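Friendly challenge for the regulars: who can give me the structure tokens for this chain first? No prize, just bragging rights.
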Amino acid sequence: MLAALAASAESWNKGSLKGHLAIYDPSVTVMTKNGPRPGIEPIERSFGETYFTNGAPKQALRTEQTEIRMLSRDSALMTGRFILSGGNLPEQSGWFSLVWIRTSAGWKVVHDHTS
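First reply, four minutes later:
Bragging rights claimed.
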């Protein structure tokens, strides 16, 4: 899970939004201020419009203070802090909770609550 999260951030920083979203299971739900947003496509559209310009991220992404609590053999809760910095923009940061499940394709996120 930690390696997948690191690869996700690396993909973001290289401008690969699809690579960043590869940690998500197709059934993922992301909590937003307007309520749950199901599926990867709405997440991709929102992130692309908000955090990317011409296929490149406006700011670099990193995570820290990441912890994993196993909920069962096939599920886990990951918490941590994200930081978006650079791009001559004010730094943005917040906290996230990711619910991971073990799938045939490896560990995938089925729920993301980021604030």
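Residues 61 and 84 are 5 Å apart (CA to CA). DSSP finds three helices and eight strands in the chain. Your move, everyone else.
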